[in-house]
């Protein structure tokens, strides 16, 4: 989440969040790569960075909340920005923000965290096998 005062630095905020999201996509990509040496079980597939459709970010400028996301297309990061999330300027906008944050929390709990846990466990297992091949 990046915050700015009304009328200040929206371009800077977009750049800051886009830079963070790009870097944040790079780390899981390295973890996925580290775990490729770990065999998968029957009926399982190894996790991929493509399993995550996007990584979310928020920019709050004054009363306005904007959603920004990063996704991967081939080997490049694509930034999707400036979709309004709502505004704290009125009660309807506040409800929009709360509902959107609840949906985002649901996605984190059901998709992102399980995926990240699996990726980090596989990377840790790969390092453990590399450092102690005897088990």
TrEMBL record:
InterPro entries: PDDEXK_12 (IPR046797). Residues 1-113 form the PD-(D/E)XK nuclease-like domain. It comes from the Eukaryota. This is PD-(D/E)XK nuclease-like domain-containing protein. It comes from Fusarium globosum.
